[in-house]
Specification:
By secondary structure, the chain is an all-alpha fold. The protein contains four helices and no strands. It has one domain.
Length: 157
């Protein structure tokens, strides 16, 4: 494969997963799911829908992580000056996006899924509901941090 074709392929494998990652996250977490929770009647019916959407989003992100990180690493090592701060910061921002989102998907989301049925059946202010709400807030903060890291990676590209 010619160098130009290899560079073009690496660029595609960098930008496409990054754009899909950010777009899917915004579309699901900040557009679709709030609409589901507003429209669901009873509101508790939205929980299983949200869970399904978030599990699928997490699977998509896991699938996108490898091509994104591989192309980002290749880009940094093969044709960019890794001693310059811009490419290193961009790489770090992209790697942070992946690490933050995967931590949420693999560490926080399983706990949220386990707590959801008890929290849905509990009254506001119950220990189950409080535990779920704390984890949900952590999940939202992680998602927001990952989005900021991804936006920084785009800005530095």
């Amino acid at each position: 494969m010619e160098l130009d074709a290899l560079v073009q392929t690496a660029r595609f494998l960098y930008y496409f997963p990054l754009a899909l990652w950010i777009g899917a996250t915004v579309g699901v977490a900040f557009v679709a799911l709030p609409a589901v929770f507003r429209a669901a009647e009873p509101r508790a019916a939205a929980g299983p829908i949200a869970e399904l959407a978030l599990v699928r989003l997490d699977r998509l992100k896991i699938a996108l992580a490898l091509p994104f990180l591989a192309s980002s690493t290749y880009r940094l090592l093969a044709w960019e000056n890794a001693s310059m701060s811009g490419p290193v910061l961009r790489y770090g921002a992209g790697a942070a996006m992946v690490a933050i989102d995967l931590a949420g998907a693999l560490l926080v989301m399983p706990k949220l899924r386990a707590l959801r049925p008890a929290a849905a059946a509990s009254a506001a202010g119950s220990p189950e509901r409080a535990a779920f709400d704390r984890l949900h807030a952590r999940s939202v903060r992680l998602t927001s941090a990952a989005l900021l890291a991804g936006a920084l990676a785009i800005f530095l590209s």
